[in-house]
Queue: 2 jobs
Job 1
Amino acid sequence: MAPLPTWPPALTDAQQADLAFQSATYALANGFTLLPVPPKGERVPDIPTQVIAAPLSLLPTPFPRPAYVQAKSIQRLYNALYARVALDWEFLDGIMEQVAPVDDFQAELWNRWKAIRDEIKVTQPIQLGIFRSDYLLHEHGNYVGDKAHIKQVEFNTIAASFGALSQKASEMHRYLSEQTNYFHAHAQLNNPNAFVDNHSLEEISAGLAEGFNAYGNCDAVVLFVVQEGERNVFDQRALEYQLLKRHQIQVVRLTFAQIAQRGKLDDDKMFWLDNPLGKDALEVAVVYYRAAYTPADYTTSAEWDTRVLLERATAIKCPSMALQLAGAKKVQQVLAAPGVLEDMLLARARPDVGFGAGPGSLGQPDAAALRDTWTGLWPLDSSEQGQKALQLAREHPERFVLKPQREGGGNNIYRENIPPYLAHLEEEDKARPGTAPRREAYILMELIEPPTGLHNLLVRGGEGKPRLADVVSELGVYGVALFGGDVAPVNREAGTLLRTKGRESDEGGVAIGISSIDSPLLV
Ligand code: ADP
Ligand code: MG
């Protein structure tokens, strides 16, 4: 593995300004965009009239080719693993029994699922997963690329976003190379093979189309369940355009509130949407969630009721409630405990989820390949492991991040903030005698240490002007899995995402303006 180059190469102010112009106009012209943050006190308008370029990097960021290849090559194993977890009720129950008493959101999801799972197993056993496995490069010591390898941050099973914008970022960097030759600033920037051929937009929409085809009614529609006030609409719209253009599939996008008004389950458990444009009602074939992953999406029990109604329908859910539960960070931690992954992957008789001929076809090397991408993960419960973890967290907080069972960014507790936070949880416990300690809702994870010394020119959404930042890049690999019932299984890797953020920020949300959507320059 070659060492990572010093980055970015020297560019004059005029060259940077030209790249800033080229990238901003390319982004605006090609839907590499977000809606702007609305003025204070206002909402995102129903009919938008303005867009901003998505946060971007002027140059692709160097990334070791072997690590990129490795991340892509194990995606099908991850797809198979999480499909198995979703099919394993006993395993999920065992984990949720521990999480539910200390996490109301997970408890609600689990309890609502338990109440209907026997029914839905008959109504619609097929499940669709559009996943994204996220990694950071990990390296001991400082900036020497030949030692870097990937470590998994988390595995997303619901609303894995940026597939469309990511493909556009790859295309933009390739365009900039062709258009400007990047002023011959670095040989790799003029090497077409160093740029990735990333088709995440096409791959993800093809996955939705595969779900649609498995449902088997070409007159039905795909329902996108979206958040009110969503700014990342173009990432979603691009999937919709692709579904229509390439697959002749229509999409209806609605919030939970709109579905509650317009949707109903008929006696055969088919889900129908009133068509306010006066035509016949629309039958839903696939429910694709780009919402429903955070407590804020369920302001009252009405949203939960709508979720359950959709879950009970014959429509194929992406993801099912079971798959959403499988994506809990607690599941990631439990899988990492000695023997658990091996049992899930190798020992248990599981239906074929499209990886080889059946359970027997997965071997010890597969389990080892997955474990190789994991870093230290601990429970914070009363087990021996949990006690040890608690001690570690108190004595060496600088090595850890504390994570609750949440998605969507901004929820983790880092480093020296951990001990006071644990103390605060203990205070809360005193007010609830006889219940499990609140820290059990969290997992403790070892911090991954990305290579240092890499910089890039980042442009914040809507700003236009690049700033030089010391950067950390997070690689995401998308996966598509269609499984359950007697469906012909689908298990594919589905493209990649590179998000690059300033090193000073622990979290990396693109929508909250910290991360840029980038693409890897393979070295
Ligand atoms: P979320 O579900 O909110 O996206 P993540 O587990 O992805 O939660 O954590 C959010 C961010 O925190 C990641 O994108 C990454 O930048 C950082 N992070 C999470 N876990 C680690 C870790 N073990 N080491 C270093 N950074 C981490
Ligand atoms: Mg994340």
Note: Residues 134, 154 surround magnesium ion (ligand 2) (CB under 6 Å).
Job 2
Amino acid sequence: MPVSFPPTFLWGTATASYQIEGGAQEGGRTPSIWDTFSHTPGKVEGGHTGDVAVDHFHRRAADVEMMAGLGVGAYRFSVSWPRVQPTGRGPAVQQGLDFYRGLVDDLLAKGIKPVLTLYHWDLPQELESAGGWPERDTAHRFADYARIVADALGDRVDMWTTLNEPWCSAFLGYGSGVHAPGRTDPVAALRAAHHLNLGHGLAAQALRSTLPARAQVSISLNPAAVRAKTQSPADLDAQRRIDALANRIFADPLLNGTYPQDLLADTARLTDWSFVESNDLAIIKHPLDSLGINYYSPTVVSSATDSHVVRNDNHGVSDHSPWPAADAVSFHQAPGDRTEMGWAIDPTGMHEVLMHYSRMAPGLPLMITENGAAYDDKPSADGRVHDPERMRYLHGHLAAVHQAIEDGADVRGYFLWSLMDNFEWSYGYTKRFGAVYIDYETQTRTPKSSAYWYSELARTGVLPDVPVE
Ligand code: FCB
């Protein structure tokens, strides 16, 4: 039986501003926290920065042509906050808005649906210097910025995402410090998580009051499929703690308007959470039109007797934990093959997460806003880039998505991370997630075999077999 997706299913690819644009000092753009971080020695592998990235800022039109050639119907991109509102306050810069308006017009002209993310981690440095996400004011600044972008692009973009993976912003940015701004303060991380939630709610309100009724407002989370190593009470408690810090700290306020009681109790020795003000949860619970889910690999935990666990949090190694007040938890890789990131390949986690959210939020459409894999791709003698492992990874995960739909989950679309190789945060350019290969010397773009495979899927809606190459 062929594995067929619904005819209305949206097929897309995804990128993010700092990872692809370059043009870091052009058009009035000011530094973001990722400019500062990547220019700080020792923070990013190889000292790589996003100064040039894949030069999308100058190659926008050709990149859209390339997407059109692949026949994929949607494109998820993010707007660089310091490109449209330098320093994060005050009026917008026309040149910055014009870049994104041009991008959207190019996409629409090719019949590609633009899906816009307002924040994929590039906070204006000036806002970090004023305290960043641990400070409440940043949430208000974010809502002002959301209104600026909605005013400029609301007539032509229908799908809006406030934040990408607030877990990473809060806990990798302010907890383990492997992401910008590189702070290692567990209380700041918890405060950041709340102000990101609040920023989402305030921005959702701003979008709703500015955008036409047809517009859809969403947020992309990276829910963890958290598994206990054994069924011992201690390991199950480790699972509960990490589930609270990875998942429920965002999902509960967004969908139910509450913070989990066990999270408040677990973290009580660090903070009394008095930074949560009386109306905040009602603001955060703003109705969503869909929920974006980014999934790559499951998380396996056990209780640890060693209270100082050095762990790989899937985005870099640090001896500061990204998990406030959960020091006595060890992390393990799930069994099986791994990608080049070292992440275990386990599509059952995709199914698990989709089923969990469809039960938790009945009636709320789900969208997979990221899924994909890094491999050490290289052009072969014939000039082509063969990436059978990536096709196998995608095939397995898409079969899991299909199964979730069969099992009743209302999944409306899938965005492959990523359209093209790019700046993989603290790994710099050493990890290649693209369906399109980038030669960083020449900026030549070469679609990998997976790009053609995915293109067939997007055109037919039927999951193709993985060719033997
Ligand atoms: C996600 C990020 C995305 C990319 C992938 C591999 O956490 O949202 O930018 O780095 O991981």
Note: The mean pLDDT is 96.
